Structure formats: structure tokens, C-alpha cells
Sequence to fold (220 residues):
Amino acid sequence: AARIIQNMDPTADPCKDFYQYACGGWLNRHVIPETSSRYSIFDILRDELEIILKGVLETSDQRDREAFQKAKILYKSCMNESLIEQRDSLPLLEALTMAGDWPVASADWNKTREPNWSMEEKLSIMNSRFNKRVLIDMFVWNDDRDSSRHIIYIDQPSLGMPSRDYYFNGGNYQKVREAYLQFMVTVAKMIREDKNMSKDDSFVQEEMAKVMELETEIAN
Fold:
């Protein structure tokens, strides 16, 4: 009750400005951080929890359970910025190789990769190794008809952009669509450069336009 009263502004007339009356105290005591678009009690709790988790993850891992040890190893690997800089794009290139390589970032993908390329195999690898659903979403969950058992669900996955509106509507949607395509082009160029491949901007632009066209057809 004290917290609710503290977050109110009893000096405001609720008949004239109910929002100020109900939330004025909160507005006076809290400023939205520049890094956030919103700030609520849930955001404060999340920030406090992250501080607690940071302390836990940075303690020594002696006699920890295996799950805790793995979490601490993952945290340390993310904080090791010098090693991250040293490895540069190598982890991404290794992941691409595992996923069947990328035609736009390969000199002769049609000859060396395509003959042995299997969509079913690559979709399963993307799902099992990278938790990425492409074309088909498949997962195990409680059966809606019988909650005592689990069944396999097959569904459509999420799109590359937040919703299908981004693929068809004009205005700001179109601006995001153009930026999305340019982002794909930029990433492809960077990977080609890291693989010491020749610069071929027109080829990259054409290939990424095909990707955009495919995504649009899927969204449709």
C-alpha cells in the first residue's frame, strides 16, 4: 500500500488528470534511461536480477553443479573480449560450413556443395545445433487434447522481419525493408572479404535480392 501511495500524486485532481493522479509519484522519481524505450517495475526487477546473476556468475566454480559450471563458462567466454576480437569472424565461418556454406559467399558452391546438399539434413542441423527454425517449425509440447502426454507439433516459423506487414506495406515498413536488404548485402560482402574472395558487388546484390524475394513469397 505504501508503494502504491508513493507512486501516486495526491495533489493532482483525478477528475482532471487521472494519469498524473495515479502515476505522478512514479514519474517524479523515475527517469526512462537513454538505453530504454520504457521503464516499469518489471524493468527495475530485471535490472536488479541481472546484478545478482552477474555476482553469481563471477564467483569461483568450485563444487558447483554441472549446469552452474556451464553457465559460468558461457559467461566467461562472452566476457573475454580480447579472444573474441582475436577470433574475429572465424566462429561465423565455421557455423556457415556446418550449415552447408552460403552460395553468395562461395566461389563454386554449385559444384562443390550442391551435389551432396540435402535440405532435410540442413534443416535438422539448423534446428538441433543452432535452435533456428527455417521453413518449418517443429517442437515437442503438451498435447492440447491430453495434457498427460507430449506430441510433435509442426508449425510455420517466424519470418526474418517481425511480421508480414514489413514485406508488403509502404511508408516506414518500406524503409525497414530496404534497410533489411542492405543489411544482408553488407553481411555477405564482409564474409566474402574475410574469406579472401574477389569483390563482386553486383553478384551479391542480385543474390540477396533473390533471398528477399523468397522471404516475401514465404510471408505471402
Summary: The beta strands are 137-142, 150-155. The first strand starts at residue 137 and ends at 142. The chain has a mean pLDDT of 92.
